[in-house]
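Thread: "does anyone have the structure for this chain?"

Original post by V.I.:
We have the sequence but no experimental structure in hand. Need at least a predicted one for the grant figures.
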Amino acid sequence: MLFCLLSLLLLACGEQTVRHQKIFRYNEVSGLATLDPAFARSQAIMWPVHQLFNTLLETDSLLGLKGSLASTWTVTADKMCYTFQLRSDVYFHDDPAFGKNGTRRLKAKDVAFSFTRLINPKTASPGAWIFNNIVAADSPFVAVNDTVFQIRLSKPYALLPALLTMPYCSILPEEAVLKYGADFGRHPVGTGPFRYVAWQEGQLLVLKKNERYFETDAKGNRLPYLEGVNISFLESRAAEFLAFSQGELDFINDLDPSFKDEMLTRTGKLRKAWVGKIAMEQHPYLNTEYLGVLMKDSINNVSPLQNKWVRKALSYSIDRKKMILFLRNNIGTPALHGFAPDGFPSVIRNDDQGTGYDTAIARRLLLHAGYGPGHPMPPITLVTVPNYAAMGSFLVNELSKAGFNIQLEVIQKTVLLEKMSASQVAFFRGSWIADFPDALNFMSVFYSKHPAPPNYTRYHNAHFDSLYEYALSETEISKRSEACHQMEVLLMEDLSVIPLWYDKVIHLRQLDVKGFHPNAQNMLELRHVEK
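Reply from O.Q.:
Generated one for you, tokens below.
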């Protein structure tokens, strides 16, 4: 393995070689703990797992569902059983686990094994929740034959197809799991467009093109086009940026705030010094930034934010466009339409629901709530993390213009999450990133039967709950979309959260990288990339 790694390192350094030109290079600042998809809970793990493995279904560029390992799927009339027809041309990566044959064809039993392993308590996967309390107690995963697989449910659950696109649901062979045991995460075997070659911890992860990969392009050419992927582990954003600027990396995901002003104009365009040297793309990202209010606050029962009119006034006091312009170089979209972000084609958008900017309305709402010149508002503490301290200071200044007395408290992210989970913080900055491509994932944040996470505000509205439960079992997209619309209206009336902006992902890439298309889930998609 070390010989292979050194060989590939030398290959990656050979600037004149053709193969170097076809190796995609990116850096992972946060490091990498495992390549086992059962533990793909962070973007750092999801990206390489997506290159190594496939799921039954995947999302297209518009967040619709399409087949991957499954060519088609159906659900019974009672919505209790999903049947998947598997492709017959999929092979696992060559590996000693398969003996003298080196590989074998994917079968339905592999899907059953992968999902059973995911929910096995001994695996301790953070993704086990996908099937918990959803699948039948007896024989939930059935290999009908080599190419037909079924999931049997305990109750109708319309989100199942979307959940199956998550990296947790990647398909892997039992032979490799048995051979490598606890080290499977260091020696992954899948069906993906790239296969594992070598990994020197903290230095480099090397993936090579899977010559047996089943997908082809529109002209019948076998994918992927690249010869391989090299992932480095520079721990500093500054070192990563320097490597990219010197042409040693092909791609950077997002920009550290300290580099934004050097690279971008105030309006989010590349500065002239960089135009023609690198390429930049921005794309809606399924992430909503918000301010959260703990409902029925047991910490401070006299908090003004327990009054709905105060929350509405606070929302009208925030100039979201100005915030994004000055703090984020215009990277993002003002959250004026509800909690679910841009990127969902099926979401019915609402006009301004108290998320516009109008200090006159804000002052009238505060007077209605009993606060004014003769009755000033007591101080309110907003808790945030260091990366969002500048945003917090902006809000303190802006909200003071409407009569709010906001005090800022900055604590570490892990501490804030612990306090939010324990209902120990009354007013906080938060964000919600989609786990899977469905607007109901954002509505799940407010379902009263859910703990924290995701229901950090302890929101409880019986009508909202009934709509959410209805949408969970409704497979017709238009009806679920209407239910989400009604839930959004309730949320914006109660305002347990005050949406700030819908995020955008920003990518920088070298000019010789072609066919790189961002997506709303910010999944690294390399099958169609060329160099």
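V.I.: this helps a lot. The chain has a mean pLDDT of 91.
O.Q.: and Residues 477-494 form the longest helix (18 residues).
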